[in-house]
Design brief:
By secondary structure, the protein is of the alpha/beta class. The chain folds into 2 domains: 59 residues, Orthogonal Bundle (Arc Repressor Mutant, subunit A); 99 residues, Glutaredoxin, CATH 3.40.30. 41% of the residues lie in helices and 14% in strands. It has 7 helices and 5 strands; from the N terminus they run H-H-H-H-E-H-H-E-E-E-H-E. The C terminus is likely disordered.
């Protein structure tokens, strides 16, 4: 058994009520990622030990879903909705404009200072707000859904985020 560190102890505490052989792997992965923003190798090992699974099984399940991440996220993550309703409302133009403002080449990239990353987000069913994005602040564990965007509003929003002027509402909103 590896040396018990403060991080390992905290992860054990997060999942202590989950029983092995009870189908709680995804619950454990969600809890740890919600707390830390990503799944470290250490976290995967602790989950495997606690649930009495092979580490490869835990990693296999986590890597299957694109929601889980294995690297610490940027301070602000922007999830661009790739759903059909958003695409019909020019979400591709919004994506391209925001990538240009942040000086990013493609989704999945992050700014040099690790402050902003843009990633693909699957449709969350808020089609009445199309086109939309989610803005996630890692430190505050908050997510804003910002919808009814135009390219002009998306550029203004990206500039506000870049300049540290964007204040999250903590709920769905139209920018």
């Amino acid at each position: 058994m590896p040396l018990e560190t403060e991080a390992r102890a905290e992860i054990r505490s997060l999942i202590s009520d989950l029983e092995p052989d009870d189908g709680k792997l995804l619950d454990a992965l969600h809890r740890v990622q919600h707390r830390y923003g990503y799944l470290s190798n250490e976290a995967l090992e602790v989950i495997a030990e606690h649930l009495k699974m092979f580490p490869s099984h835990v990693y296999g399940a986590a890597s299957f879903y694109d929601e889980y991440r294995f690297d610490p996220p940027a301070s602000t993550t922007i999830r661009w909705c790739s759903g059909p309703a958003c695409r019909l409302e020019n979400s591709n133009g919004i994506r391209d404009a925001m990538l240009a403002v942040f000086d990013l080449k493609e989704l999945g990239d992050r700014t040099n200072d690790n402050q902003v990353e843009m990633i693909n987000g699957q449709c969350n069913g808020a089609c009445e707000l199309a086109p939309l994005i989610w803005i996630e602040k890692q430190i505050e564990h908050k997510r804003d859904v910002v919808g009814k965007l135009s390219v002009t509003k998306a550029i203004e929003l990206a500039r506000a985020i870049s300049n540290g002027e964007y204040i999250e509402e903590g709920h769905e909103t139209a920018f």
